[in-house]
Structures are given as structure tokens and as C-alpha cells.
Write a sequence for this structure.
């Protein structure tokens, strides 16, 4: 694809250098367009050296550059998109080469906002983004983390790797989950004892988030119902939840039209029968009750052809327990995770699993990154969607 990479003037312009390199590495023809403010952060020579064409000088360069760039682009990516750039674009201004190119193009546009938290949360910015979204502009949401000047908060530009992954998922060659709706649950639910304390478990949500990210990269439209405090991957719809009851409601709604449901969450098995309204000051006699079995409810209500994936975190006799759970839960795939194995399970960046299917098929996935494990799970999901059974 011919990609115009617009760079506006924020500190994240230094990360746009990597976006440029990754887009070129992915085989795209990249033309960088920098605002004057962007040139104060990073030299044009840096982009010219990495991109497929040098950075054009500006609107007044010969050959009507904005119409040439706008008309020939297959995609325009603006990274970083500052509050000022978003405002000028939303208002239809065309006072520099980047905004003029944005107006002159009919190609899809992706913006990757980056700014301080106060600016990101300002109603003017929110409204400008809402206008742009209504016009079909895609947004790669910022993450939270370190900002310029040492502040911490939301507004940090998404990582270059995620920006390029969103571009590939939205506009690249169709992946094997293109057009499929995938719902993933992740993280350990928290069940309130009182307003201050909760019962929870050791699940980090990393494996579930990795499945959501992998499904996004394979072209799916992803909803992530997450109880994890980790940053969710950009480019997926996120429904944050806390308790098993919240998760049950969110999953029920999200799964109604889903093609694939991956229940990677570690749902608390028990919750306090009643949670105190005010902070408890003496050790209570906790009375616990079981939480609803979310996946069993989803299995009972599943639409024809929907592929349902469960997880089982075990510490002993994992395979035998997994087989029994596969039958009991009525799922198509059960990912058995022996969380006592070194480097596997809770909070690790790596995992090692066995994927069980009715009929006896077992796929052993050796120790590797949670992202690679996610892709191995989705390989089996795709096989089942395509009608292959065990
Ligand atoms: N699960 C669920 N709702 C619950 C408990 C678990 O949907 N209340 C889902 C999990 O997300 C997972 C699968 O069921 O996909 C298996 O979870 P696990 O905790 O291993 O199974 P349990 O039903 O709790 O069985 P046991 O406690 O006997 O191991």
C-alpha cells in the first residue's frame, strides 16, 4: 500500500520513526509528511532516510503536493495526532501540507492521538474525535504511561508495533478471522467483601489479552470483557468488569452475535453472600456462595456454529481433570493450563498448554510467549469454524 505517514508536533514524534520503519518493513511505500512543529522534535532527515520517499518541504513545493499525496494514497496514518492536528482536521482546515493532504484524500485515515491527560480528556478533544469517528476515521486509542515532562497518565501514543498491527488488521490481506466476531474474557474477577476488600485470584489477564490481540491481528472484530488492570490491546472493543456477576452480564450481551467465545477469565468460584456497605473493622465470619457458571450459561445459549473455548487452570492431575471439564462444560475446545509448571500460568509472559477437543484430539503447545500460545489456540478455533472436528 502507498501510505502517507503524517507526523504532527508532539514528543511521540520520536516513536513515529519506528512506525515509519515498521510500515516500510511490512512492505508498504511510505511517504512521511511532517508539520513544522514535528520538525522541532525529530529531523526530517531521519524520516527521509527510513521512508520510501523524502519528506516533502511543504504546501508551496512545486507540483501541488497535497493533491498528489492525497490522490495517490491508499491509506493515511497520522502518528502522533496532537490535539491541535485533530482540531484542525475536524474543522476542515488546510493550512499546512498534512491537513491539506487529509482534506484532499479519499483514502481511509487512521489517527493515533498523543497528548497530556488533561488535553485528552478535554471536551474539545473528545468532540473533535467524535466528529472524526463519525466521518469514518479510525482511531488507535492512546495508552496510559509516561508522558512528556515525567507525568504519568492516559494520552501516551499507542506503541508502534500496535499501530502497525491495527493497520494490518484493518487494511491488510484478510486474515483467517476476517469478518468474524470474537469475544474474549480475561483476568481474575474481584468479589467485594466490603468497599475496601475483595476476594480474587492470581490471574493477570495476560493470556486473555494476548488472545484478543491475536484475534484482532487475524482480522476479527474483537470484544474484550476484562477484569484485568493491564492495558488492553488497542483496536479492540473493551468492556471493563469487576465481579463474576458483571462479567456474566457483559458476556451474555456480547456473545449473542459472536462467532467465537474464548472464556480465558479466571472467574472467582465463590463470593461473599453479602458484601458490607461500609468498611468492616473486625474479622468477619465470611459466608460464601458459588458464583454463576458463566461458561455453562453461554454453552446452553450458544448460537449454531459458535465456537466456545474454555480454560482450565490446574495444579495436579491436569489432563484427567481437563478431560472431565471438557465434557462437563460443553465446550468445543478446552485449554488446559498446568499453572504449577515452571514459566507457565499466572502472571508469566510465557505459557505452556494442551488444547483438548471432544473426540480425543489433544494439541500440545510447548512453552512459548502467551501471544504464540494465543495463536495456537486460534489455529484450532479456525479449524473448527471451517468445519473440521476432532
Ligand atoms: N468459569 C466460568 N464461570 C465460573 C467459573 C469458571 O465461566 N463461575 C469458566 C472459566 O472462565 C474457564 C472454565 O470455566 O473457562 C473453567 O474454569 P475453572 O475455574 O477451571 O473450572 P471450575 O468450573 O471452577 O471447576 P473446578 O473449580 O472444579 O476446577
Amino acid at each position: 500500500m502507498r501510505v502517507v505517514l503524517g507526523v504532527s508536533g508532539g514528543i511521540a514524534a520520536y516513536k513515529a520513526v519506528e512506525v515509519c520503519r515498521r510500515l516500510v518493513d511490512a512492505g508498504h511505500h511510505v511517504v512521511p509528511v511532517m508539520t513544522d512543529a514535528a520538525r522541532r522534535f525529530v529531523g526530517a532527515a531521519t524520516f527521509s532516510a527510513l521512508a520510501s520517499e523524502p519528506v516533502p518541504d511543504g504546501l508551496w513545493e512545486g507540483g501541488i503536493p497535497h493533491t498528489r499525496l492525497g490522490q495517490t494514497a491508499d491509506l493515511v496514518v497520522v502518528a502522533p495526532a496532537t490535539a491541535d492536528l485533530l482540531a484542525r482536521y475536524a474543522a476542515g482546515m488546510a493550512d499546512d501540507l498534512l491537513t491539506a493532504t487529509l482534506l484532499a484524500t479519499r483514502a481511509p485515515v487512521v489517527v493515533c492521538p498523543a497528548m497530556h491527560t488533561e488535553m485528552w480528556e478535554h471536551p474539545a478533544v473528545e468532540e473533535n474525535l467524535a466528529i472524526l469517528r463519525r466521518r469514518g476515521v479510525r482511531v488507535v486509542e492512546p495508552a496510559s504511561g509516561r508522558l512528556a515532562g515525567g507525568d504519568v497518565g492516559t494520552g501516551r501514543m499507542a506503541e508502534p508495533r500496535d499501530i502497525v498491527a491495527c493497520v494490518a488488521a484493518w487494511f491488510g490481506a484478510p486474515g483467517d478471522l476476517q469478518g468474524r466476531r470474537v469475544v474474549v474474557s480475561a483476568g481474575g474477577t474481584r468479589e467485594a467483601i466490603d468497599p475496601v476488600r475483595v476476594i480474587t485470584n492470581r490471574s493477570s489477564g495476560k493470556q486473555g489479552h494476548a488472545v484478543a490481540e491475536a484475534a484482532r491481528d487475524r482480522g476479527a472484530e474483537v470484544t474484550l470483557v476484562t477484569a484485568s488492570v493491564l492495558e488492553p490491546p488497542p483496536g479492540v472493543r473493551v468492556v471493563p468488569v469487576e465481579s463474576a456477576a458483571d462479567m456474566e452480564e457483559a458476556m451474555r450481551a456480547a456473545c449473542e452475535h459472536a462467532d467465537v467465545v474464548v472464556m480465558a477469565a479466571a472467574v472467582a468460584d465463590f463470593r461473599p453472600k453479602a458484601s458490607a456497605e461500609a468498611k468492616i473493622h473486625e474479622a468477619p465470619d465470611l459466608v460464601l456462595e458459588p458464583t454463576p457458571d458463566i461458561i455453562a450459561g453461554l454453552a446452553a445459549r450458544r448460537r449454531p456454529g459458535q465456537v466456545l473455548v474454555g480454560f482450565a487452570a490446574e495444579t495436579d492431575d491436569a489432563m484427567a481433570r481437563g478431560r472431565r471439564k471438557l465434557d462437563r462444560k460443553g465446550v468445543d475446545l478446552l485449554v488446559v493450563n498446568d499453572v504449577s509448571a515452571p514459566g507457565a500460568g499466572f502472571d508469566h509472559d510465557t505459557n505452556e498448554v494442551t488444547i483438548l477437543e471432544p473426540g480425543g484430539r489433544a494439541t500440545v503447545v510447548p512453552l512459548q510467549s502467551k501471544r504464540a500460545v494465543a495463536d495456537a489456540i486460534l489455529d484450532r478455533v479456525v479449524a473448527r469454524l471451517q468445519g473440521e472436528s476432532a
The radius of gyration is 24 Å. The longest helix spans residues 370-385. Residues 2-171 form a domain with the Rossmann fold fold (CATH 3.40.50.1950). The mean pLDDT is 94.
